[in-house]
């Protein structure tokens, strides 16, 4: 990287580091807050769905904006808007006016602004660094994000347990505002030649071109179908099932659960450090990385599911449960990095700059399209079905799907 690229990338990372730290603090506290207020896994599942569905609906349109407007300005504006909304929630909480309905409604708007932010930031990294530095930059970006996510849940559990939800909102709101301020100093001009004129026909034409591009690429198409099924099963496991299991079934405190969440992120951090150090210049290893990543995730997920049967839970003390489950989640995180980062770099390399935001947005929607249904289903299941049976069922389904995908992997080209 040259001097300007280093400066821009450093400011970009600083903004991410601070806002992700604040989000990590809030992310760990909100499910605990909802669970403490309602005691319902279904309400947790509903909140997780509300957090995702508006973003899925608006994400393709956000992608069109990201390609036709200045990505830096969108990123800054969305950070400021989200920061002020969350500070408003802090004021409501401070005066005792917060309710579940207000929380759900505000989350709808935050989710929409998240999609606008993501469509621009994901597409910006190739504009800030050279192609030869993409794997290293992506690994560094994910490593810094992982560091924030490690600190966030730890701090979130402690702050929520000691000071309550209002301080969680204050810290997260201020983190978004600081992030926006740092991003203002990035030297960046609009890098696409597309017109800024936007109407229904433009949006429809752009989205149609994106879908055609994706489904003409055999690797993208196969990856899409696999990701839809996998996200339907895995995302609800982490967002709904694991919080419910360790808070309600195992009996972790807010602080213990916050620490447990960090073990998954530590694994992602370690995985990305390994990628950045040993594989940043070796793009031909993508298929092998994906294969080992998938095998690792499937294997550790199976071990994790059997560890949570009642006989195992009753055998170990709370802290023994913490160290064993934390170790397994850490290994799963390393495996996850070996899958997600090479795929992200592949997308950044092959997708043209003029189409990058909208194609990333469409890919994101297709990847996540089934997830809300999974969250609702799992949310209702945990209120009536023993959690270990849900874990075991999901693990065996993922195993079968992964076997089918690994057979396809040898025919897919990720260069």
Automatic annotation (TrEMBL):
- A GO molecular-function annotation: transmembrane transporter activity
Q: Which Pfam families match?
A: MFS_1 (PF07690)
Location of the protein in the cell: Cell membrane
- Keyword Transmembrane helix part of the UniProt annotation: yes
Looking at the record, the residues that make up the Major facilitator superfamily (MFS) profile domain are 8-410
SUPFAM superfamilies the record matches? MFS general substrate transporter
Q: Where are the transmembrane segments?
A: 12-34, 46-65, 77-96, 169-188, 223-242, 262-280, 292-309, 321-347, 359-381, 387-406
Keyword match Repressor:
no
A GO term from the CC aspect: plasma membrane
Arranged from A to Z, the UniProt key words for this protein are: Cell membrane, Membrane, Transmembrane, Transmembrane helix, Transport
Membrane topology according to the record:
Multi-pass membrane protein
- Supply the PANTHER family for this chain: MACROLIDE-EFFLUX PROTEIN (PTHR43266), PERMEASE, MAJOR FACILITATOR SUPERFAMILY-RELATED (PTHR43266:SF9)
Q: What is this protein called?
A: Permease
Which species is the source of this protein?
A: Tepiditoga spiralis
